[in-house]
Amino acid sequence: MKIIAVGWNYAEHNRELNRISIPDHPVIFMKPETALLKDNKPFFLPDFSNRIEYETEIIVRISKMGKNISAKFADRYYDAIGLGIDFTARDLQNEFKSKGAPWEICKGFDNSAPISEFLPKENFNIDNLSFSLKLNDTLVQKGNTHDMIFKVNEIIEYISKFFTLKTGDIIFTGTPVGVGPVKIGDHLEGFIENNKMLDFYVS
Ligand code: MG
């Protein structure tokens, strides 16, 4: 399986990272399967970065193989939604960005993609879904998918021009404003609407 992620998909978050212009197509990157962290296992801070930041994101699970999927039919290609954290080594990312170098290391390192269980998509309106993250009991991120620059259907259309989507692939759909660093001992709790989806510690 593969993990495909969208960057810069919420305007307010883009502003917090000093990115003003609206992208004219989704910004895409990937994480390898070894990035997955499941079952609320602890996230161990890696020693190669001094600033790992959380990015809370709605994720969707692909349920059917597809290529060149049109946005109109994209909802036939995923069956479930969940919550994920796109952990990012921000210090390395800033260094790579300044050099125009690729992002893989800072986004795709081992365990950089904690994910929740999945819920059937029928129970939710994917384009009006609120989600949030509490860090040590304080609300730090609160988003709603209606603020996405590119909607899930448009993301699937775009991605599938380049990459065949296969059953089990996961798409991270971007993070809202409020990203920040984690340290050892931190407690992260993620929610989709009132459902607690993630509950784990940084070790
Ligand atoms: Mg992200």
Describe the structure in your own words.
It is a single chain. By secondary structure, the protein is α+β, with helices and mostly antiparallel strands. It has one domain: Fumarylacetoacetase-like, C-terminal domain (Fumarylacetoacetate hydrolase, domain 2), CATH 3.90.850.10. The model has no long low-confidence stretch (mean pLDDT 96). The protein has helices at residues 11-16, 90-99, 104-108, 152-162; strands at 3-7, 27-31, 36-37, 52-54, 56-62, 78-85, 88-89, 113-114, 119-120, 130-135, 138-144, 170-172, 180-181, 187-192, 195-201. Strand 14 and strand 15 (195-201) form a beta hairpin. It has 4 helices and 15 strands. The relative contact order is 0.29. The two termini are 27 Å apart. The strands form 4 sheets. The protein has a 6-stranded mixed beta sheet with strand order 2-1-12-5-6-9. Strands 11-10-14-15 form a 4-stranded antiparallel beta sheet, with no helix packed on it. It is globular, with a radius of gyration of 16 Å. Bound molecules: magnesium ion.
The residue-averaged pLDDT reads 96
- Sheet bearing the most strands, described? 6 strands, mixed
Distinct small-molecule ligands in the complex: magnesium ion
Radius of gyration: 16 Å
How much of the sequence is in beta strands? 25-35%
Spans with pLDDT under 50 lasting ≥5 residues? none
In total, how many domains does the architecture comprise? 1
Report how far apart the termini are: 27 Å
- Within the largest sheet, what's the order of strands? 2-1-12-5-6-9
Structural class: alpha+beta
H and E order: EHEEEEEEHHEEEEHEEEE
Rough outline: globular
- Total helices: the number is 4
CATH superfamily grouping: Fumarylacetoacetase-like, C-terminal domain
CATH architecture: Alpha-Beta Complex
| Residues in helix, % | 10-25%
CATH class: Alpha Beta
User: How many strands in all?
Assistant: 15
